[in-house]
Amino acid sequence: MRPPAEAIGTLALIVGAIAVAIFIGVEGALVYAVWRYRTSRVSTPARFDRNTRLELAWTAAPALTLAVVFVLMLGTLRDIGAATDAQLRIRATGHQWWWEFDYSGIVTANEMHIPIDTAIDIELASVDVNHSFWVPELGGKTDMIPGQINHLRLLTRRPGVYLGQCAEFCGVEHAWMRIRVVAETKEDFDRWLATQGSPATASGDGARVFQSNTCVNCHAIRGTSARGEAGPDLTHVGGRATIAAGVLPSDAASIRAWLVDPQRYKPGAFMPRVPLSDADLDALASYLGSLR
Ligand code: CUA
Description:
8 helices; alpha+beta; 5-stranded mixed beta sheet; 20% strand; elongated; 3-stranded mixed beta sheet; Immunoglobulin-like
């Protein structure tokens, strides 16, 4: 299978080239006419109504051009359509304002890992409003619509980090709904997935603070009794590059700042401020940061 981003890129280049050729032709003719007849003193311009050949020509030319573009587009659509031959399926669910990624029961948030050279089918869902999954370097932009599953086919040959963004206005924090896709070798991906599938191992004072406060109502940490589903799964949150869908890095200091006042960093987010003592904040932040 061909990488969808490559198919889309090629189509864009071809359509762009056609547009540039038309632009040069039309503007060239205009400039030429202005220059060629600049000194003419014709008092009554000649009339050209009812020129059948001309009218046929300027109807047929654009129709033909669009027909060519249409056929090319059909080919590209086939290239990027839902993967019946997918080797990996990921369910991506849009939430206000973060992403849930489900690898057949192994759930993570905001950072999606994919193996390279693998045909991937992403099932796009939403639990609240319309979102749109868009990682420009990997493929097309596809909407996530409540009550419906859309499919997006992904494939890349190049390892690396690809950044994306929700592309459908979904509320006040739409702009802070970023996607981070890590494309890696099959071995690295398998290792990552095995880690994600394992329960949290960290414990200590922070775990107690987490379990005894409202955190557990919204967040899940597998391996503990926390099973909330309203917010991101935090089982391995410290292993991600960012928290809150790209707002802050996921080190303990940033997590602490976030816990102190989420609204300062992401106004409108549904994460409430939980009043905690300084000692509890320290413990909770270092506990979450150590969930790798
Ligand atoms: Cu989600 Cu915009």
